[in-house]
Specification:
alpha+beta, globular, 3-stranded antiparallel beta sheet, single chain
Amino acid sequence: MELTEKLNFDHEDRRDIYDYIEAHGEVRADGARRALNLDPEAFGHHVTILRRDGYIRRDGNKLRVAYQEEDVEEHDAEDLTYTIRAAQQRDLSGLIGVIRAVAEEGTYIEAETVADLLDHEEVILRHNEVRSRMVFVACVDDEVVGWVHLDLPETEKLAHTAVLTVGLLPTYRGHGIGTALLERGFRWACDHDFEKLYNSVPATNEAAIDFLEAHGWETEAVREDHYRIDDEYVDEVMMARFLDCA
């Protein structure tokens, strides 16, 4: 199932089952049935229909949303080999740790917000009728070292846009990993018919602004004194990039 696919359920119990699984990332089938107070036979029938329609997958007694599988990219950068792939639920703690480590530099407020949201929801990928998100991770020896996150509004008037955040542990900078993550986010957005990406950073984060400008981003607006960092007021630089997917 594509993250941009419109959800359509012809039975309220199927919607409830999907919503429960989507909100938890991966669940035990028997636990979901009990939580939803459904008859075992009816629950089994609805799960079968949801699997047939491509909404969920079943692995033994575990159920999860059947998101479209994404290619795993392998990269070699001098003496470093890394992969970029779609984030999986097992990456949750490592992903949050990396985002918080980058956010602790004090100049990426949007990253703090993403980390707090992931920590609160305890689910990486989301697709519901309010909002969806896609996350790719960069891994070295299967350890998460960076990410690109796309926040995808479901509101029709904003459905052509996405908010992108990208970050990388300082130790791994200078190998092209950040560029590869950004380009992976671009390609995914293009493949799913998005037209414009946004990212906002404090004006003091000159490295991030330079990085984004080098990859075709432009400053759309500046909100004065929007952040307060270490008791100092700092402007927010609102950046955007139109996607030329042709």
